[in-house]
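HUMAN: Mind sharing a backbone?

ASSISTANT:
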Amino acid sequence: MASKGNKKVNRPRASAGNRGAKWALLIALVLLVGMVVLLARLTAENNSRPTEAPTAQTDTRSVEKPPEKQPVSPEFQFYTLLPKQGNQPPRPAMQEEGVADEPSAERSDVKSDVRYVLQAGSFSKARDAEARKAELALLGVESHINAVDVSGRRYHRVILGPLPGKGIAALRRQLDQAGIQTTEPRRSDG
């Protein structure tokens, strides 16, 4: 009998063609990566170059320099930066309708020996009140801010004083010229 154990089995060997395909794939991959790197460098160089290259060479001695700009002195115009509307209390209805402005009892009763306070604004935002206080400081007028709650809302009032009664009229004129409206003078409690 023939021996069954000596049967030859055809097993695929690692052929040279299969090895060659692996090397070809590896080389193609390396070339592809090299091309991508080269393309990236060329693109970066093109982006770093100035957009307009000089078309002809010029003699730098004949080119006129633009006149040097003189440094501008800083002029801080505080009043143009601050909002001019919306920061004042509403006017009474009589003034809006054009009724003649009659001097109030408080205005005529300002006494030089009594101290008064003025309100230069009431703001819902603290930063607006701070801006008004700074505006007054630039005019040389001292003020302070009182925070009060009215009908469940918080307001920040800019208060001037207590001031002597003899300087109230001049101060109100100065503030009016600067565009700052004030309330009628009230007697100071303190």
In short: The beta strands are 115-123, 144-150, 153-164, 186-187. Residues 16-48 form the longest helix (33 residues). The two ends are 134 Å apart (CA to CA). Helices lie at 16-48, 78-81, 93-96, 105-108, 126-138, 168-177.
